[in-house]
Prior knowledge:
By secondary structure, the chain is of the alpha/beta class. It has two domains: 11-79 and 381-448, Urease, subunit C, domain 1 (Roll); 80-336, TIM Barrel (Alpha-Beta Barrel). It has 16 helices and 16 strands. Helix 4 packs parallel to helix 5 (184-198) and helix 12 (338-351) packs across helix 16.
Amino acid sequence: MAHGTDASPLLSAHRGALLRFRADPGASNDAASHDYFEDGLLLIEDGRVAACGPATELLAQLPRSLAVTHHVDSLILPGFIDTHIHYPQVDVIGAGGQGLLDWLETYTFPQERRFSDFAHASAVAEVFLDELARNGTTTALVFCTVHAASVEAFFTAAQRRGLRMIAGKVLMDRNCPEYLRDTADEGIATSRQLLTRWHGQDRLGYAITPRFAPTSTPEQLLAAGRLAAEFPDVHIHSHLAENHDEIEWVGRLYPEARSYLDVYDRCGLVRERAVYAHCLHMDDVDRLRMASAGAAAAFCPTSNLYLGSGLFDIHAADRTGQRFSVATDVGGGTSFSLLRTLDEACKVAKLTGQYLSPLRAFYLVTLGAARCLGLQHQIGTLATGSEADFVVLDLQATELLARRTRAAHALNDVLSALLTLGDDRAVRATYSLGRLIASRPTLRNPERL
Length: 449
Ligand code: GUN
Ligand code: ZN
């Protein structure tokens, strides 16, 4: 292993309690699903995980001169992955509205109009990426707006930061204000240009992004499906079955389809690497179809509660094998923090008479999310050879969290305290490819890293 000598050495090591997943813990918290090292070491070489395991064992094999960052009273996890979020909606969080369609018309569309301006889009992209980093999120699947400039601005900012991000231009050729409308042909032509320019550049990926069935003509959805068929490794990103009025509307617009999902399916948009936000009001035929196609749902509890959309059915997803992860959906969602979001996910489970364990909750925003995106070989595992994106959570971030975690002995109890009491204050540090991208002082240690 080579040693670097500059400020960003090739080889670095982080010591502390460490949790990573191998599989879905499921409802039973299966012990084989994860590795938990109470005193762990994460060794990083050239931005990738070189080793991960018990600290004393690994340190015995490493040169004594190796600089080790010791994260006391912390928990190291793979960086969080947010599988559904809108960067242009930073400024509509909590804006009001009576429900999805009213909220879109009144608050969201006027805000998205501003993203035709590259300078505005760039400024918001920087704020957005800062927020992700501060909250421990190292990868996201991101809606831009209908404007090419919004995509250019986002990818430019993400590339400069060396992040793994997936994003795309919104396709929307009807039922929206004229200032946000493209056409079937022009929308696809622009998507193709952006995809060609950005997909696979460094760590960036493109997502073909029809907003939702009501704002695309059948011609546009069919053309989106043809584009997707040409590029099997790009993502598809949209909304599905979020709100009763929306679903009725889709029924009127697409009377020939069996269901809302079927509208997308007939166009070739249901496959691996397709992620549909919400999936609240659907039947098992559709869930089974998503499962067999390898498409994933993004469960967005803060958004679903804020907009009064409904409660995601975890049991139904499990029963049918429908993949799902947990996502923020900012700005319908009310927090960038996946800790806050997991807390709400656990409460939604209880409201439906179900249970989401804290252990499984953390799986859903790490390995579970990476699997939904088909990126489990790159991120979300801290497996040897994978990209060293990770977060350090501070068990003593607040007086209350410190008190609560001191009394917690079992891992599940610590995780429960973290997601119940934690927010951005609990994110001590965030690393991307082994490089520090955000840190905050703590009660115990007032220095930034
Ligand atoms: N459905 C169509 N567009 C949107 C959006 O921007 N947010 C949410 N939550 N649902 C949508
Ligand atoms: Zn959304």
